[in-house]
Design a protein that fits this description.
With about 45 residues, the chain is an alpha+beta fold. Helices cover about 30% and strands about 20% of the residues. Strands 1-2 form a two-stranded antiparallel sheet. The protein is globular, with a radius of gyration of 11 Å.
């Protein structure tokens, strides 16, 4: 996702681009899940 400029090195692209973009587009918020060594970002339509 960093290659497409959705994420920056510290993950600030999530609140600045993904969450704000989804809120502006369809008034939803993605679900952020942290499980052991992985991070899941669930997007809803």
């Amino acid at each position: 996702m960093r290659d497409y400029r959705y994420l920056e090195h510290m993950g600030m692209g999530i609140p600045r681009k993904i969450i704000l973009g989804m809120h502006n587009h369809n008034h939803t918020v993605p679900e952020l899940v942290e499980e052991q060594e992985r991070f899941i970002l669930r997007l809803s339509a």
